[in-house]
Fold:
Amino acid sequence: SNEKILIEQNSLSYIDAEAKGLPFNPLIPTEKIKGGRITFDVKKHISSVVSIISYSCGFEDKQTLRRIFRDAIRQSFQENNIPIENDQEIDLDTQEFPSFPRVIEIIEGQSGSNVDHLISRLTEIDDDGILENAKGSFKDLLHGKYLINLSKLSNDRSKKLAICLFLKFAETYFTNLPVTNQCKHCIIIDEAKRLQGFEVLDRYALECRKWGVSLLLSSQTLTHFSNDIINNSSTKICHKITTGTENKKMIDLLGSSNLEAQELLSKVDNFDAFEVLINSKNINLEPIYTLGLHHYLILEHLLKNGVMKIDQLNQIDGCDPPDSRKLR
Structure:
């Protein structure tokens, strides 16, 4: 499949969230480097996890449910002899951390309508087992290149939770590192519309480059992103637009009011496959053709094996090329 070829070509480690859960346990706090010491803000971390999960589960405004959930997580930490304080020194190699199944067990050991309501919300969000099966620390992910597939998760809230947790952990981890002008990590989030209204996204998107992180967000329309994100994005890429309403939004969001830009944007609905409109520091609203996966596979094959005929393209592993006119 194309996905398999993409993974192989880029030496990615593939993680199926439906089968394996999150690739990190959200109950393992991220480290903080201060004065040469590596510490962990356990109390703050628990509050953050409660905030994100309650937001994704839809009970962020239910203080009683949040308190029951927070206290259960705290108890699970105490059972592992981890003090509920900030600025704690923890040996990640030897320390056992709690799991979400244990947190659920603690909550189920209580009674009352609020407990039942909370269990119902948490069970609904984790029907796919992304928290139940979560293992490892977030830092472990930074030593490789990963494609995390959420598409097979049956619950949209599970998908939202996974993305929100990942982004929050990225913000917490990277903002504790020294500022750098080198790009060391790249985070690509497809279907970023799931993050609409998630304040962490706006905050992190504005600052992540200071810590050497490139953030690429993809969605069906620019209106899925806040004006802060749009105005502070160094590069904007627009694929085919089929409605005049979207054209108008594009003009407004890109800050293009001159006649030439409007005429250019009006042509977007006639774009071919792989044709995009780019607005960046170096390219000002110019339509170009991008290098799709098929093009990449063809180019690599030609560089290795030399000239071949167009009707032989389907012999390239993973390549199912479109109309040959699009491959010129």
In short: The chain has twelve helices and nine strands.
